[in-house]
Amino acid sequence: MEAHSLSPDAHMSTIPRFDAAWQTWLDDNLRRGCTHQSMIDAMIASAFHPNAARSILARHLAGEAVGQHDDATADYVYGKPMLPPGRVLVASDCESSKLFSCDEPVVALLADVLSPRECDRLIEIGRERVQRSSVVDPDSGGEVLIDARKSEGAFVNGSTDPLVATIDRRIAELVQQPVENGEDLHILRYGAGGEYRPHFDYFPEEQAGSKHHMQRGGQRIATLILYLNQVEDGGDTTFPDIGLTIHPRRGAALYFEYVNALGQTDPRTLHAGMPVERGEKWIATKWMRRGRFRTQD
């Protein structure tokens, strides 16, 4: 059953406050059997931040008191990372050491995920297929071209080349996520001047266009960027809000996650691909979903 009752402040202030009217609204909708997601969607439509909406509902369900202001812009709650602990991650055909890791936000650089030969083969596959990269339009959910992203890309899977299926399985084993929850591998080429300005990999739930993509497996929860070549100059991956810069290292992979058990999304995972100054940069990106990923119809 979906929520149909009008949000209490739908025609009032643009600055939401979780007051007694909102508590009554939640209780009424819970009694009616409305889904949690429908209530979160209604709160987002009434200008609550998605993280605040999820946190408020979770605390309300747990019987905790929520004040008028303490969750207005609820901060991301860090819990146990999804990435397995320890200094070495293990797959059936690979062992990868963590070159570094941090927990807030969850970021790790993994060594030797790909061999030099595998990197070369993915670049070969990419050269045959890449086209100008697009991004998700925030309103329609369609694909659009923007100046903030200057690269060429192609999605590939096991039907493209058996190596891709091998890498898909290896990634799933290393980070302990179901292989079926991974999107198709995205091979990307950045030529001289190519960049991707600061952005998030998760789908902002306050944007109408995100719903279209989340129907295909739910929210993105984590990203793995595979570095396929040594860039002559430039092309670093940066996290501007935490002052972190990663230099591309052939065969290594950068992992970061951005969704917690409450369904909140981590704004500190804002990241960018810096301009390539000399040469070219090749990467392959694997995005992981909350549920089984369904390819486009």
Automatic annotation (TrEMBL):
Required cofactor names: L-ascorbate
This protein's record includes keyword Iron: yes
InterPro entries membership: Oxoglu/Fe-dep_dioxygenase_dom (IPR005123), P4HA-like (IPR045054), Pro_4_hyd_alph (IPR006620), Pro_4_hyd_alph_FE2OG_OXY (IPR044862)
Gene3D superfamilies assigned: q2cbj1_9rhob like domain (2.60.120.620)
Listed name of the protein: 2OG-Fe(II) oxygenase superfamily protein
SMART domains: P4Hc
Pfam families per the UniProt record, alphabetical: 2OG-FeII_Oxy_3 (PF13640)
MF terms in GO: iron ion binding; L-ascorbic acid binding; procollagen-proline 4-dioxygenase activity
Keywords: Dioxygenase, Iron, Metal-binding, Oxidoreductase, Vitamin C
Fe2OG dioxygenase domain: residues covered: 181-290
Gene source species: Caballeronia cordobensis (Burkholderia cordobensis)
